[in-house]
Prior knowledge:
CATH superfamily: Peptidyl-tRNA hydrolase
Structural class: alpha/beta
Number of domains: 1
Strand content: 15-25%
CATH topology: Rossmann fold
Radius of gyration: 15 Å
Largest sheet: 7 strands, mixed
Order of helices and strands: EHEEEHEEHEHHH
CATH architecture: 3-Layer(aba) Sandwich
Amino acid sequence: MTEGDAWLVVGLGNPGPTYAGHRHNVGHKVVEELADRMGSGFRNHKSGRAVVVEGRLVPGGPRLVLAELRSYMNESGGPLKALLTFYKLPVERLVVVHDELDIPFDTLRVKRGGGDNGHNGLRSVRAALDTGDYYRVRVGVGRPPGRQPVADFVLSDYSAAERKVLPFQVDRAADAVESLVNDGLEITQSRFNG
């Protein structure tokens, strides 16, 4: 892979089946959808700290490295930085897909840069990269009901009603990643941030 046309797309989440259905793991679901579109399965990366898929979504399209980190959310930065270094990619070629409390469920937003907004995965990434200036596909999970603690909310499964809609939200978020790497930020924001 050369940095000219390659992108690293990382779906944030926690490893293992215990966490697979949690709101905090929607980033994993999105990169898994993209891997399905490529017709490829994840394989262990040499670092031992991630599983990856390498390829193109369409012939002639940009080359992608799709990654799920094998670290817990609050330790995402180190493994993510190791992947950027391994593939010799600049931070300008990084897309992080993550859950977002401040966006209603079944919506998403695409942006570049910004703070971590209390998100432990983003905080770890910022600390490792010494910048927050990368692309983000922010998948809305909404705020917890009542007085439920935020940690309990994001580390719990989607409701039955949400699980019916979730595949469409994941599909749309994967579309947003595809648009971002093919058509750029401005066009993607006009398509998906409305």
